[in-house]
Write a structure and sequence with these properties.
With 256 residues, the protein is α+β, with helices and mostly antiparallel strands. It is built from six helices and 13 strands. A hairpin with a 2-residue loop joins strand 4 and strand 5. The longest helix is centred in the last third of the chain and has 30 residues. The relative contact order is 0.21.
Length: 256
Amino acid sequence: MNKTLRFMAVPTLALAALALSGSPAMAADQSYQSTLGQLNGSSGSATIELHVTGNQAHVLLNVSGMPATFMDMPYPHVQHIHGGAQGTCPDPSADKDGDQVISTTEGAPSYGGIVTTLSTSGDTSPAAGLDIKAAGQGAAYTIDRTFELNAETKAALEAGTAVVVVHGLDPATLSPAGAAAKSDIVPELPLAATSPALCGTLTAGQMKMPAGGAETGIAQETGTDTGALAIGGGLALIALAGGAYVVRRRTAESTA
């Protein structure tokens, strides 16, 4: 190989190395969050962060201000990620039977069916949706855990239709008709026990650190993104190519 070809190979090898390092390693995993709004006269509040890394998801859900007791026991509040519908929370028009309570099934056209159960432990599939043993307990609680993300939930997150719903109302705050009604999904329970109290659509937020970066469990605040990295990489390659050209030219001049 002559000197000219040797120097031309330098930027080509650098470009190949940058492309390899920027392919899946630079692809950041997505984070989602929501501040849940109140439904059916609920006085509760909640925030959620969901950080996706490959097929794993880490959830941090903080709930407060919910009804504390149910039948003299800590109130079991089930919560889920719903998907496959409009990706929104229902408005008052969803109350089709006029009892002034939006039931779980009345809200379903807005937020869809269960795709993940946000249980405190164990099963996170839709099958665990009514498992009160793994529900949040009492007026305030936190769910902080990692679980495997199923295809339905991943699809809903990517489509922007994933909605978090926390269930369980105080019967004393409902209309007489609502307080007297039976649950639309578990007839042995009152309507208040299973109706939605809080709701929020999960929206994409800050990107997590790339694989191999510091894992903090929260979204990273940064002014750098993959676009900027790509531009910076391009400038570096231009500079490298320019340097090779200068060296090649000087070599040619010295031998002329």
